Amino acid sequence: MMRLLNRLAVKRLKSGKGGPKVVLLLTTTGRKSGLLRQTPLQFEVVDGEYVLGSARGLEADWVQNILACPQVMVEVGGRQFAATAEVLTDAGKIADFFMLRLQRHPLMMRMMYLMEGLPLNPVRADFEKLAASKVVVVLRLEE
Question: CATH number of the domain that 58 lies in?
Answer without folding.
Answer: 2.30.110.10
